[in-house]
């Protein structure tokens, strides 16, 4: 039933508080797809984005994986970048000042090989002005150690989240791996560890073969699948977690239109992240913000609250 | 500043075997386009294939505000692109990347192309020619038909061009690398610009070094974002390097000294 609480012409309130991460609108840029915020500035200004989740950052610099690092697949792509990044100190010195000066809502995605690595990186990030939250990459499928192994064992998830929470007062948002049998068990473990919100989902582990060369396409053999192909998996997992865990969810996985984003809200996401879709359409985040506004106006809603989890009502 | 445009296709026709020439009215991109830069083209509005295709600038017409692309149908994306009709629109980002370094004063340049890699050298030839430099070109083609495409273009521009074809149907019989060895006087240049298959670019880089001529190559790598954000198109220019360059942002044109 349509409601007409919103006065004509009044813009709906799109701001979101995701476990302490305050976003001006509910669209975030997924880590690893938006660089350090300014790579896409000719098309979209980073300060207009709800939250910019910067490239996965580790304690020490990482060179990344040998090429080929990407491969297109049906309605998606595989990537195996291997967490190439200059290390946390260089990130703080070289990238953070500009982001801070521009008023960008910055979320730093951190990764590591050990619980200690995560804790130390979080401690450094936690001391910086201009960081709004930490996303914990416990689900990167492309590095030999750390990443995925942390994300598939509930005890490890709980331990790493707790270790990071003791180092920082920033909101901590673990990014969950879909490469598990029971996503709810992982989400509960993150909650026990003290997570403020959940980010889901990361990429699905996959591979592709070059039939002419008779060998895997990617230099790393395996890579993470993203793009429209994974959207149904993401929706299903968020739906499951929303029913069982009270934490707010940053939902993403294959979003490439406003309608996709709306589906994520309806299964339980409080905000959404866009990644691979940006490579196809650099204006996508802004189009989705406008699209959501349009939908709310059309439906006579003042904000997103009534949409979040709407698909659970029977 | 690179732009995102819905370009109007004026022509998109086969000019050789699996080889298409597409002219697109895209004034914002045309205005800024430098030789050696590329555009990122969405082959269709469907999600499969998903990603944009990086294509080099074959030619630019500043009066018309148009860019021309020359592409070979090698997969599903370029196959879809070849089906676009004139008066339809294509979604293009660009111009992107670092193009060729242009020359100061009046200098001698040698342009060396291999196959469809000769395409960006056409626009380069036009710009260098307009700036009053002395240009020669050497290019290799798989067939007489392919060679004829470039022969016509170089001829229009008034550039002295040396073709090589594998069957000898036009110019030197063999590869463009063979042609260079056969015509050593071509090395008398201040700068060599090269684009083509990897092995050919390696051989041309070696040729430039032997002759103490500086030069640049234009590299190719699978890309997703095209703007240096995703780090997908990484490669090492030299196996000893401890960092990966990003072909989309640091290139696609690189100095031969870095190889």
Describe the structure.
The complex is a heterodimer of chains A (314) and B (259). In chain A, helix 6 packs parallel to helix 7. The radius of gyration of chain A is 19 Å and the shape is globular. By secondary structure, chain A is α/β, with parallel strands linked by helices. In chain A, the strands form four sheets. An eight-stranded parallel sheet of chain A has the order 9-8-7-4-3-16-15-10. Chain A is 31% helix and 19% strand. The longest helix of chain A has 16 residues, at 284-299. Chain B has two domains: 3-96, Elongation Factor Tu (Ef-tu), domain 3 (Beta Barrel); 108-218, Rossmann fold. Chain B contains seven helices and 16 strands. Chain B has helices at residues 27-32, 76-82, 119-130, 144-157, 176-182, 198-210, 247-250, and strands at 3-16, 19-25, 38-42, 53-56, 59-61, 66-72, 89-96, 108-114, 134-141, 160-165, 172-173, 191-195, 214-218, 234-235, 245-246, 253-255. The mean pLDDT of chain B is 96. The chains are: A alpha/beta (314), B alpha/beta (259). The interface between A and B is medium-sized, with 34 and 32 residues.
Which helices and strands appear, and what pairs or packs with what?
The complex is a heterodimer of chains A (314) and B (259).
Chain A: E1 16-18, E2 21-23, E3 27-29, E4 51-57, E5 70-73, E6 76-79, H1 88-101, E7 106-110, H2 115-126, E8 133-137, H3 148-151, H4 154-165, E9 172-175, H5 183-193, E10 198-200, E11 204-206, E12 209-210, E13 215-216, E14 223-226, H6 231-244, E15 249-252, H7 258-267, E16 271-274, H8 276-280, H9 284-299
Parallel strand pairs in A: 3-4, 3-16, 4-7, 7-8, 8-9, 10-15, 15-16
Antiparallel strand pairs in A: 1-2, 5-6, 6-14, 11-14, 12-13
Helix pairs in contact in A: 2-4, 4-5, 5-6, 6-7, 7-9
Chain B: E1 3-16, E2 19-25, H1 27-32, E3 38-42, E4 53-56, E5 59-61, E6 66-72, H2 76-82, E7 89-96, E8 108-114, H3 119-130, E9 134-141, H4 144-157, E10 160-165, E11 172-173, H5 176-182, E12 191-195, H6 198-210, E13 214-218, E14 234-235, E15 245-246, H7 247-250, E16 253-255
Helix pairs in contact in B: 3-4, 5-6
